[in-house]
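A student in our group prepared the protein record below, which I am reviewing. This is what I was given:
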Amino acid sequence: MRVVVATDLSEASLAAVDTMTACAAAAFERVVLVHAVDLDLYTAGGTVPAVVELAVERLGEIADDLRSAGFADVGVRVEVGPAVETIETIAAEEDAGLVVMTSLGRGAVAGRLLGSTAERLAARGRVPVLIERVTEREGAWCRLGEGGPFARVLVGTDLSGSLADQLSFVSRLPGVGEVRVVHVADPGMDPEYVREQLAQRAAEVSAPPPHALEVRADASAADGLLAEAVEWDASVIAVSPAGRGVIHRALWGSTARRVAQESPVPVLFVPVGGEPRG
């Protein structure tokens, strides 16, 4: 898999690099470190060439560290332009199958690429985005959790047909372990009917990863997913930011956004429709 790691060069955002090492070097064909010099957001002063030079130097040091850790192909891209669009363009040019960014969650945003930019990139649904959770420990920023982020993947889905795309993508993740599919149903729906529908969606995937199906009807979609993540000890929650229908967008657009803001674990946004890259 080819991966883009987007960073604003803050210590918190650079914790996303730890995701790569947690998965192990052999899991990735290529890792590209990206910094977008967004002139609308940049307020630190200095000339653009100097900012670009500084970013290239800093990312070059991190790239050398990754190479020393066994990553065979590490690239550096520093481009001037709007952050979201620039990251999307670079991901397409690099044929990346995943963009990794960091976020501190609701009410705590560090750096220009954390928080709103990560959320906007994920919501556009044009490239899979992993929003890592980071925290400050003993004066240093680090990612939450230990080990690979895909050890226990909780897939939040509805009945619109997104599950086939979600499972197809999850099956390609590096180090994927246990997979649990969860649908938070309307209390009036028959759980067995929901399970049958989910099983049919999963059967559309030629080689789905082994997974369990769970139907909850005890909370709103977001509350149910967040509760399941805690109860099951998920290492990541996978959701889709948008779907093929208006109802899906209305329900899961807001659900995915809230999960991204409040999740105690990383959130993986899997676009619905289209061929996966990387």
